[in-house]
Amino acid sequence: MKNADAAKLATAGLLACLMGSTALAQDKPFSGITLTIASQNDQFAPVIAELAPKFEEETGATVKVDILDYGSLLTKTTADYIGDTEGYDLVTMDIVWAGEYAENGYSVELSELIERDADEIDVDDIYPKLMMGLGNFEGRQVAFPFAGYANVLAYNKTRLDAAGLEAPTTMEEFVAAAEKLTDPDAGLYGFVANGQKGPASAQDWMQYNSEMGGAIMGEDGMPTLNSDANVESLKVYRDLFRKAAPPGAAGYDWGGREESFRQGVAALMQTWSVGAPGYYNPEISKVVDDVAITTAPHSGSAAPSYGIGGWGMAINADVSPEEQEAAWAFIKWLTSPEIHKEFNLMGAGSFLRKSEMTDPDLLEKFPFLPVLAETFENGNYDYRPRIPEYPQIQDFLGTAVNSVLVGDADPKEALDAAQAQAEELF
Amino acid sequence: MPFAARRKLFLVIMAVPVVAYVLVVGIWPLAQGIWYSLYDYNLIRPQRTKFAGLDNYVEIITDPVSRQALINTAIFTLGAVFFELLLGFMLALALWRDDRFNRLALALILIPVTITPLVVGLIFKGLLAADYGMIGYFLAEWGLTDPRGLLADQHAALATLIFIDVWEWTPLVALILLAGLKALPSDILEAASVDGATGPQKLRIIVIPLMLPAVLLALILRTVDAFRVFDTVYVATGGGPGNATNTLMLHAVKQGLEFFNIGRASAIANLTLLIIAVIAAAFVMMIRHADKKANGK
Fold first, then answer.
1. Measured between CB atoms, which of A78, A251, A392 is closest to B43?
2. B258 with A247: Cβ contact below 8 A
3. Helix %, strand %, coil % of chain A (to 5)
4. For residue A283, what is the enclosing H or E element?
């Protein structure tokens, strides 16, 4: 599959060279081609749709954006790959799907293309951790990064100041501050995170777990869900919910916890940077003048483990070489410094390049960019294991963490059960 | 060709489309589902596919999550159908008399049936949320429920889902039973009145026995439907908290469309189909028996 793809692309490249004079003479090399993107319904999706006509103007290729929720995106694109139905030319790929893409050869291997066009892409300007984390799996570049998300600590500075507290830098300070800032009688809480069964609680806990020195996979590639460190961190997470979170937080997913923070109910929240522009939007936020953002805390004993997440763009390996070339041109165009800056100025919240972190126009609009820069430099993209078994492991953890939060199981018991299920997958 | 042979040929030709239709939409998918269920077959790891015999079925019985899903589904079905029949019957009796008020009331109480279950799940999730829900907030505030809300309380979540199902489907049961009531022979009831039978006597001796076919029809429809519950649970709790509201269909969808574990998903679906078929067959036999008893047919 891999060799066949490379051969197809090489043929297309050769054809393009042979027809070089004609192609160069053509203003719009991809006229008549329609690229269909299956896109996650994140902030970047409508921006891609809005920018698409500009690409068509420059190259002649029409770009259609099919915006899907997470579950539908995974189901529809997997069905498309497996059935070789060529429904989508480009697919936004969640960081955690990389293993599955690599194992099955779903997408075009981009390494050679990146090398070929390295100068044009300005590869050195892209954070290496985003290049690896958002598309590379064991040496195969299955997608090209375009939307880097950093796990950051958003906090209500006004409330911390009033309590005489500084932004916590360690998990110990974080826990103490969360408890101190909680006053249920006043409807104010110190902390909020995802508690809902499923990916929501699994993903948030994995972040805290990593910050406290825990890990989901061992160095031997086998799951270690019930390690002592993991059990300990789940106890801390549960206690934070008991002592410092709004009562409904055990049922919150991303929307619920973001709302709780924007309404000023919770004072400390770890979150993906993509939501940050919303805190400064007075139409949906009551904390516009109170909010501040800093790097995520970590346990005194553990090295910083800032979470990296986000999306890569993958080219469907089933589509024709011509469409693959056009798709690659679109990726290069979207991630080019000029367009990607515009993309972010339009509110995509999806950063990629080092140059964006110091860009005055972007900095003016998004003052928290240095925090993202620090996270992208020193972050960890593997705290959620990027292996084909990930969706099931996430489900086991999502049930275990939620059971602990609602008082149905104790951390050791819940993680033991999840570990037993996970071991069956290997 | 003699007439008998031509007639036979004609009948065969006429039957072909129906047989083809049943084969294509009924038998073939069923056979394929059974075939897949005998394999350890995951779409995202096709290279590891291997014949597994009945392992998938054994795992459903031995795996605590699947077993819990089976138990939850059974409790949900029993609870929901019991209350729907009880309330539906009372509602049907209340609406029996044909007057303008009852006609209007019937139209109004049918509103929940017209709302898609997915939306019903979302509506109740919003209403019952402890932090911002119009009902959940006050219930938690007055200390009547867990502060996390009914749907996040592992002891109350399944009962709450049963309540939601009862809210949505009782009117349909009432409608079916009302149709049954209206079809009752009025002369027998009048004769009973003339003979001095009291209301409860008429209900016990005449109405309920004659209504049995309608009751069983409602029972069959609702049992089969409740056993397949998915949409409401999916949006309202996602099977949580823990696995407290995980149902068989939710489990099958997750295995099939989230983990692409086609072998296991097929096994769960086949098992569900088998259970539903057994229940439906039992009910059909009961209907026949009741019909024979009531109408001598």
1. A78
2. no
3. 50, 15, 30
4. none
The answer to whether B91 and B218 are in contact (CB under 8 A) is no
Separation between Cα atoms, residue B127 and residue B117, nearest integer Å: 15
CB A154 within 8 A of CB A272: no
Query: Taking CB atoms and an 8 Å limit, are A196 and B238 in contact across chains?
Result: yes
Q: How far is C-alpha A262 from the geometric centre of its chain's CA atoms?
A: 21
- Answer whether A216's CB lies under 8 Å from A224's CB: yes
Residue A137, helix vs strand vs coil: strand
B140 Cβ under 8 Å from any chain A Cβ: yes
Segment A207-261, tens digit of pLDDT: 999 999 999 999 999 999 999 999 999 999 999 999 999 988 988 889 889 999 9
Distance CA A255, CA B269 (A): 32
Residue B32: CB atoms within 10 A of its CB come to: 11
Q: CA angle, A109 as apex, A108 and A114 as ends, to 5°?
A: 115
pTM comes to: 0.84
Question: pLDDT digit string (tens) for A405-417?
Answer: 988 899 999 999 9
Residue A32's SS3 state is coil
Q: Does A135 contact B at CB distance below 8 Å?
A: no
Q: Where are the alpha helices (DSSP H) in A70-185?
A: 70-82, 98-104, 111-116, 118-121, 128-133, 157-162, 171-180
Instruction: Tell me the nearest-neighbour CA distance from B17 into chain A, angstroms.
Output: 29
Task: Measure in Å the smallest separation between the Cα of A82 and chain B Cα atoms.
Answer: 7
Evaluated on CA atoms B203, B208, B210, B211, the torsion sign reads: positive
- pLDDT digit string, tens, across residues B123-141: 999 999 887 789 998 998 8
> In terms of DSSP bridges, do strands A90-94 and B39-40 run parallel, antiparallel, or are they unpaired?
unpaired
The pairing of beta strand B50-51 with beta strand A90-94: unpaired
Say yes or no: A260 contacts chain B, CB-CB below 8 A: yes
Which of A82, A198, A248 minimises the CB distance to B148? A248
CB B224 within 8 A of CB B77: no
